[in-house]
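note to self — DONT lose this again. spent like an hour looking for the file last time. sequence + predicted structure for the chain T wanted, 214 res
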Amino acid sequence: MSCSLNAPRSGAARTDRVPGAGSRAPRRLVPGLVAAVTALAAVGTCMAGTATADAQPGPTARPAAASEASLTGSAKMYRADGQRVHFSFDAHGFGPAEAGGTSRGTFRFSHFTSDGSQGAHFEGRIDCLITGGPVATATGVITRSDHPDRRVVGKRVGFTVLDQGKHDRVGYSWAGSSIPVMNVPKCLSAAPYETVETGDYTVRHVMPPVTTGR
């Protein structure tokens, strides 16, 4: 177990029950869009040795503008077996830099067993944020981790957050694979299938200026 990276050491498959759902599903932690962002915006990752499983948001690369998109907040995911899974975001801007975008910020996440004896922290820098209504998709590169598989450092990961009050949801790019062997493009992630147990996320959707080319 540990963030579906196949590295700390528990081979058992896990199942979670989403509150109110009637069936159980395997809890195996479970790119297009860049071209659209290019057309839209062309003009215009931990805690090595930390003893706690909680992830807290880090500082942004530069101050946030009042009229730009953002994804902020921190929350613990619901796990029926008590696993401690946290995600924190402090992301601002819109689109990747190579498309004229302004995305920046930080992310942190951690995954530990219920007793805290196995798991790891991860943190990194945001390289793309895309928002649409209450949904935000972000990607970033892991810069620090205490996971034993050092290949995780330097890998890009993706996140998707659905902001719906007290019923927020989160998805991530390693839903069906493992971080060390994945190659995740900027601005892409998975559907938000995880349920938030405690905490809260805020998605602010602000579209950048659009030109028609005329």
